Amino acid sequence: MRPELLLASLLTFATASAPAQWQILDAHTTASLRGVHNVGQGIVWASGTNGTVLRSIDDGKSWTTCTTPPDADKLDFRGIQAFDANTAIVMSSGKGDLSRLYKTSDGCKTWRLVFTNPDKDGFWDAIYFEDHRFGALLGDPVQGRFVLFNTRDAGEHWERRDEEGLRTDPATQGAFAASNSSLIAWTGLTHRFFVTGGTDGAYIHSCNGSLEPSADRWEATCFRTRLPLARAKESSGAFSIAVHETHFVVVGGNYKSPDRVAEGAAWSTSGESWDRPSSYPHGYRSAVAYDAPSKTWITVGPNGTDISTDDGRNWQALKPDTKAGDAPDADQNWNALSLPFVVGPHGRIGKLRPDALHQPLTHPTKRLATGNW
User: pLDDT tens digits, residue range 175-213?
Assistant: First the structure.
């Protein structure tokens, strides 16, 4: 979403104490980071302002600053999707042709411009790859429809889906380019989900169809469902969505009021009907992810980190464990997740300690909504 479009009700709460245990890493950059992708086997990529792309091949112990893509020194790389240690696609966000995709195949020594936004009023928000071939690209509405491109050849070519179900009012709805996690795929190639916000409220959009090579084009049906998040504002809505098996969690809020505890999360067991949690994250949250080993959902934002061990029904604030070596602000100032890694402003990169989510936690106090919305 554009900066002017780029958390929910006032609540009273008691914060339970538990260690976040983010280990702060040194990436030798001052760029604001919003893109991160942990490929596995020690390979991690990150991206941010001023054309910055970072890569680690030793599980975050050291970071290499990549060659800046051509004519990209002033671009804001809000999303990155990597395939291995050598291959990645980075997405910049900006109006019109400031939204671009660059691809590297040689470990970020060189880059190719593979796609530029064809819409002068467009703005790209997120990029997601299901595997090495199939990917999707989400943009704010153009001519009354959300923009959804798809690729079947690892990002070399992109096809726009002009689906009636993507229709919306661009004055009241948009996506947020906050963490490259407003767009996901589910059950292989057949489902795409993205979340939005704005003065018309928060929504989840579902596009169901096939991207198989045998099809001449991507045939799909798209529809939207309202999410039970906070009262609609231009700067509020759903910012991030994650899924584990059949369980979905959405987080967000109002990015202009990051400390307001509000209706900034929702959960679903199907992706169709959505419920409010009994207790909420304690502020605006820009990213959410699931940690399978500990069966824990984790969400981050400017003022802290929260976890849920009951599939999003209750959230608990985490605090740093200074005795374990955490920095005093280790739980704060984060934008995006690709577990166990987290990134934020001013070159902040953290890594979740291996035992951080395997400790007994106290139950949060139930928070009740107050105020007029």
Answer: 999 999 999 988 665 789 999 999 999 999 998 876 555
Boundaries of domain holding 164 = 22-31+120-352
80: buried, middle or exposed (CB in 10 Å: 19+, 13-18, 0-12)?
Answer: buried
| 344 within domain boundaries | yes
Check if the beta carbon of residue 40 is closer than 8 Å to that of residue 78.
no
The string of pLDDT tens digits covering residues 38-64 is 999 999 999 999 999 999 999 999 999
Chain-centre distance for alpha carbon 121: 23
Tokens of 249: 């969690």
Examine residue 97 and state whether it is found in any structural domain, yes or no: no
Cα dist from 370 to 11, 43, 141, 278, whole Å: 6, 45, 33, 14
Domain of 347, CATH number, reads 2.120.10
User: Per the structure, how many domains does the chain have?
Assistant: 1
Look up the pTM and report it. 0.89
Buried b / exposed e over 306-341, threshold 16 CB at 10 Å, is bbbbebbbbbbbbbbbeeeebeeebbbbbbbbbbbb
* Residue 223: both structure tokens together: 């529809």
Q: Is residue 146 part of a domain?
A: yes
In a domain, 371, yes or no: no
